């Protein structure tokens, strides 16, 4: 449950620390005191979208933290799946923190670990369910009706199985639709692919061929220079008719040193080194000769190279380099094969789509029957709650009609109500008043509470459009629900506030030209005065205080 809320620089709240208790908590205060700011703060720390406008004027940042304890095993398990288990050393406390800066950036932490807004939102959905006036309006949306019905049905596994079947069918149907292009388009595509395949295959591409040809072209263009250099080097090594070459000179040097090796120490070793150089120079001479032979070329070779390079350039402009062109070729062949086999593939995917559809229809039919059974159970349970909330004549009905197959099944679901005996049920959004919507939603929430794992429920002005006995019944019902979970309620009605286990007063004050909001827990006497104020305004009389005391006593609360 939510045990502590700390707010700093949110709108008119400079700093406030609010301690909530188990059971039923109410917050009251004059209009404009800042009750809605508390809900905005809670939404912020739960990861909901917020605005820089929420930051208190003059401050550069706002901060909200929420402390939770006594979490349910289901919540602890789900938080563990997210990677944020409650801190065992601190008694199983979970702490959510969010800082909102004026530059639009957010700082988020869960149990002192950095987290994302998405993580904060996921964790928040496991901890608190906020019910506000907008959700009353959501009751008019038929999209929500199916969600509420399925929540109580107990067939979530069937819905999951059906969703998988429907997705398989949708995927097969999409594939079938893609394949059912007209024959002329397939023929045009096949002709284009055949042309492209033939164009690339006819060139007989080899990866790296362009670079190799360019090197060969460069060698041919410089062949005279190469020949002169190689021939000159060969002549200097081997000599000619009129001169000795380097090879002959080295041989003579080695011979001279060998001749004195017996009388001159070290000359033999030098002769050996020169002999080795002779052998190396002979190898070099042979390699130069071979390179010179390889430098010969046919005069037409350069034209052939230019023609080949132009052909490869054409391929490169259309399909990319050699590697990219070969990849394109493989894909084109696969596409052509797919088109040529399209009739066979279409027949196969059609059979698959039909089978998936058949199985999805069967699963959807089973879900329809489960929904019909759940609708009976749901209407009976909501009816009992409505009777308690002073709406005994209101009858809820669930209209389940067949529709096209979708991810939720083959049903359209709409809640209908009959406000008076003998009247046929009509769509809830057309005949329910604001007060009726509030009580109907509370009845639905009460029914769903038994299957909801969320520990804390917040009701923001659930008293809209109701008063008197109905308000008293709503307060009693919220107190009843608070036996199994924490309830936090913002209200304007004394009948509801009197039922609370903990009463918090929100007050707005002005100091030094600035507005401040504070939240104060009330004792018994303070509660009497606040209930009297709600009932009669600022002129509080002894009679009003006596009435307030009787209201508290009726709720089992005494000094």
Task: Provide key terms for this protein.
559 residues; six-stranded antiparallel β-sheet; 56% helix; 18% strand
Question: Topology, please?
Answer:
Blueprint: E1 2-10, E2 13-19, E3 24-28, H1 35-45, E4 61-68, H2 73-82, E5 94-101, E6 106-110, E7 113-114, H3 117-127, E8 128-131, H4 133-138, H5 142-153, H6 156-179, H7 183-203, H8 209-221, H9 223-238, H10 246-259, H11 267-294, H12 301-319, H13 322-340, H14 342-388, E9 395-406, E10 409-418, E11 426-427, H15 428-431, H16 434-449, E12 456-460, H17 468-481, E13 486-490, H18 494-497, E14 502-511, E15 514-521, H19 524-536, H20 542-554
Parallel strand pairs: 3-13, 3-14, 8-12, 12-13
Antiparallel strand pairs: 1-2, 1-4, 4-5, 5-6, 6-7, 9-10, 10-11, 14-15
Helix pairs in contact: 2-3, 5-14, 6-14, 7-13, 8-12, 9-11, 10-11, 12-13, 14-16, 16-17, 19-20
User: Count of helices?
Assistant: 20
Biggest sheet layout: 6 strands, antiparallel
Mean pLDDT: 86
Structural class comes to alpha/beta
Instruction: Strand order, main sheet: write it out.
Output: 2-1-4-5-6-7
Q: End-to-end distance, in Å?
A: 27 Å
**Cα-atom Rg, whole angstroms?**
44 Å
Strand residue percentage: 15-25%
Number of strands: 15
Question: Helicity level, as a percent range?
Answer: 55-70%
Query: Low-confidence segments, ≥5 residues, pLDDT <50?
Result: none
Shape: elongated
Question: Please, could you describe this protein's structure?
Answer:
This protein is an alpha/beta fold. 56% of the residues lie in helices and 18% in strands. It is built from 20 helices and 15 strands. The chain has helices spanning 35-45, 73-82, 117-127, 133-138, 142-153, 156-179, 183-203, 209-221, 223-238, 246-259, 267-294, 301-319, 322-340, 342-388, 428-431, 434-449, 468-481, 494-497, 524-536, 542-554; strands at 2-10, 13-19, 24-28, 61-68, 94-101, 106-110, 113-114, 128-131, 395-406, 409-418, 426-427, 456-460, 486-490, 502-511, 514-521. The strands form 3 sheets. It has a 6-stranded antiparallel beta sheet with strand order 2-1-4-5-6-7, covered by helices on one side. Strands 8-12-13-3-14-15 form a 6-stranded mixed beta sheet. Helix 17 (468-481) links the parallel strand 12 (456-460) and strand 13 (486-490). The chain is elongated. The mean pLDDT is 86.
């Amino acid at each position: 449950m939510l045990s502590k809320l700390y707010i700093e620089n949110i709108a008119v709240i400079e700093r406030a620390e609010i301690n909530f208790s188990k059971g039923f908590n109410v917050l009251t205060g004059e209009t404009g005191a800042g009750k809605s700011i508390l809900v905005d703060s809670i939404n912020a720390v739960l990861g909901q979208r917020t605005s820089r406008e929420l930051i208190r004027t003059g401050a550069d940042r706002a901060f909200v933290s929420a402390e939770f304890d006594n979490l349910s095993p289901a919540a602890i398990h789900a938080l563990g799946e997210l990677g944020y288990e409650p801190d065992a050393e601190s008694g199983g406390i979970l702490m959510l923190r969010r800082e909102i800066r004026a530059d639009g950036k957010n700082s988020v932490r869960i149990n002192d670990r950095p987290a994302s807004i998405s993580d904060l939102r996921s964790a928040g959905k496991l901890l608190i369910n906020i019910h506000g006036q907008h959700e009353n309006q959501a009751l008019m949306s038929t999209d929500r009706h199916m969600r509420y019905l399925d929540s109580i049905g107990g067939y979530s596994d069937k819905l999951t199985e059906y969703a998988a079947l429907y997705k398989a069918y949708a995927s097969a149907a999409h594939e079938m639709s893609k394949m059912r292009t007209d024959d002329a388009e397939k023929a045009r595509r096949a002709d284009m692919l055949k042309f492209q395949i033939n164009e690339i295959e006819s060139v007989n591409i080899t990866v790296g061929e362009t670079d190799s040809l360019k090197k060969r072209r460069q060698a041919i263009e410089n062949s005279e220079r190469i020949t002169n250099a190689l021939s000159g080097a060969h002549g200097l090594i081997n000599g000619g008719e009129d001169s000795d070459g380097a090879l002959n000179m080295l041989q003579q040097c080695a011979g001279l040193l060998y001749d004195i090796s017996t009388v001159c120490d070290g000359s033999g070793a030098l002769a050996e080194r020169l002999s080795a150089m002779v052998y190396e120079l002979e190898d070099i001479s042979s390699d130069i000769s071979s390179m010179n032979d390889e430098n010969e070329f046919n005069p037409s070779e350069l034209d052939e190279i230019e023609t080949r390079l132009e052909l490869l350039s054409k391929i490169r402009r259309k399909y990319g380099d050699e590697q990219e062109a070969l990849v394109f070729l493989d894909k084109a062949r696969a596409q052509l094969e797919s088109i040529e086999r399209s009739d066979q593939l279409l027949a196969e995917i059609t059979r698959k789509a039909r089978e998936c559809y058949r199985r999805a229809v069967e699963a959807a039919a089973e879900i329809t029957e489960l929904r019909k059974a759940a609708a009976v159970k749901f209407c009976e349970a909501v009816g009992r709650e409505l009777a308690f909330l002073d709406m005994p004549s209101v009858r809820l009905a669930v209209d389940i009609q067949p529709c096209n197959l979708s991810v939720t099944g083959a049903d359209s679901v709409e809640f209908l109500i009959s406000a008076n005996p003998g009247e046929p049920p009509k769509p809830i959004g057309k005949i329910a008043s604001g007060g009726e919507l509030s009580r109907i939603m509370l009845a639905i929430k009460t029914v769903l509470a038994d299957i909801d794992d969320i520990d804390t429920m917040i009701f923001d002005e659930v008293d809209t459009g109701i008063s008197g006995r109905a308000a008293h019944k709503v307060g009693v019902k919220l107190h009843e629900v608070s036996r199994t979970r924490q309830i936090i309620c913002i209200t304007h009605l004394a009948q509801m506030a009197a039922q609370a286990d903990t009463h918090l007063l929100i007050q707005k004050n002005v100091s030094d030209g600035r507005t401040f909001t504070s939240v104060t827990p009330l004792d018994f006497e303070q509660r009497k005065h606040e209930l009297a104020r709600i009932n009669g305004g600022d002129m509080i009389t002894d009679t009003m205080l006596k009435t307030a005391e009787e209201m508290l006593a009726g709720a089992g609360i005494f000094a």
